[in-house]
Write a structure and sequence with these properties.
The structure is a single chain. With 398 residues, this protein is an alpha/beta fold. The protein has 15 helices and 18 strands. Helix content is 37%, strand content 25%. The chain is globular and about 65 Å long. 47% of the residues are buried.
Length: 398
């Protein structure tokens, strides 16, 4: 049975689902509020079951050719002294089969594979009405349509979720931390390398890949609510500068480069914990349904696996309700395992006090001199790999 499907959100989850459904012959429209496809972007990891998904889609080998090739990582103190250095995969918590690539490169692979779908940019869902045998949708542009299924793959702040399940306060749980990411000049002359600075309650890192000129800086810090969503970019830049005032290493220079960055991401580290992922003929996917936060390192893999599982369920159930229930039953344990990583990881990534920072750096310096340090670091990231493989993928039905 071929369906008409509207996918709200042109990120990894939405594009991966469009790839599978269009290949099966469904009539798929992807609507994305950004004015055009995004290139570049932060580096993301594909692990575990998500590698199987890319393989099923015929994209794994091409994804491997787009690796960031980050080959080394280091941790430094306020004076820039290196506490530890290791290879890039170990530093990023990756097994050597895992793939790290730029988000924009993954988007392009998925979008090209979903060429059979219609892609609409600069638009978004304004309203929807489930009539029982279809969903009447009006977009912000005024365009209207009727669809058999609507999929909300529109991220942490999902408009679709708000329309069908209610406001964010019911579903979004803040972890007590914030993240900011910006493109900056490669003033440190990094060559496929990542360097992380750890201060009390404040972490900053910068990296350069083989795929982009310049570098990217990320800031992670603990904070109570900042009201950032009510501010424009200048206000968010001020919040970031205030949060890192007085920090050492290269932090002042990185902050000075942020205003000139063409792309500043600024948001809370949050998770979506919704009691259900569907209502009638509308279903949620990826971060809109089960955001695990950037601290989990598993957002991209959850998006890919979720899209695969939903596509499989839609292929084996004529009624959307049955498909959505099957999708949720299979995904719930996998989501729970991966969401558990976020709160645990962020406490290691952002250290609370000066004493804890000193102790952490001292431990890293000792570990850095021990034989087998990479094996010890790999053992610390074993929970990520267990969670990444904590699902049995269903068979796809054409």
């Amino acid at each position: 049975m071929n369906r008409s499907v509207l996918v709200s959100g042109g990120g990894v989850a939405g594009l991966a689902l469009a790839h599978r459904l269009a290949a099966r012959g469904d009539v798929v429209t992807v609507v994305e509020q950004a004015p055009a496809p995004r290139a570049g972007g932060y580096k993301v990891d594909v692990r575990g079951a998500a590698l199987q998904v890319l393989d099923h889609m015929g994209l794994l080998e091409e994804a491997r050719t787009l690796r960031t090739e980050v080959r080394a990582g280091s941790v430094v103190d306020a004076r820039g002294r290196r506490a530890a250095s290791m290879d890039g995969d170990t530093f990023g918590g990756r097994g050597h089969d895992d793939v790290e690539l730029l988000r924009g490169d993954l988007h392009r692979l998925l979008r090209e594979g979903a060429a059979g779908a219609e892609h609409v940019y600069g638009d978004s869902i304004a309203s929807l009405e489930d009539t029982g045998d279809g969903v009447e949708v009006e977009l912000a542009s005024g365009r209207t349509g009727r669809y058999d299924v609507v999929v909300g793959a529109d991220g942490l702040r999902s408009r679709t979720r708000n329309l069908v399940l209610g406001p964010d306060e019911r579903h979004v749980v803040d972890l007590g931390y914030y993240v900011a990411v910006a493109t900056v000049p490669n003033r440190l002359g990094l060559d496929r390398e990542e360097v992380t600075y750890v201060g009390p309650g404040r972490t900053a890192l910068v990296y350069a890949t083989a795929r982009e000129e310049g570098a990217r800086a990320m800031f992670l810090w603990s904070s109570g609510p900042l009201g950032h969503r009510d501010l424009g970019r200048a206000g968010r830049e001020r919040l970031l500068a205030d949060a890192y005032a007085g920090e050492g290493w290269e932090v002042p220079g990185l902050l000075a480069d942020v205003p000139a960055s063409p792309d500043l991401l600024f948001d809370s580290l949050s998770q979506v914990r919704a009691e259900r992922w569907s209502a009638g003929r509308t279903v949620l996917l990826g971060d809109a349904a089960y955001c695990a936060s950037a601290a989990s390192g598993q957002g991209t893999s959850l998006a890919l696996v979720g899209a695969y599982v939903l596509a499989a369920a839609l292929g084996t159930h004529d009624d959307p309700a049955g498909a959505f229930a099957a999708y949720e039953r299979r995904m719930r344990p996998f989501v729970a395992a991966n969401q558990a990583l976020g709160p645990a990881n962020i406490k290691r990534m952002v250290v609370g006090s000066k004493g804890q920072v000193r102790a952490s750096l001292a431990m890293l310096r000792v570990m850095d001199r021990l034989p087998g340090k990479d094996r010890m670091m790999a053992a610390m990231t074993a929970p990520i790999h267990r969670a990444a493989n904590a699902i049995e993928l269903p068979e796809l039905v054409s």
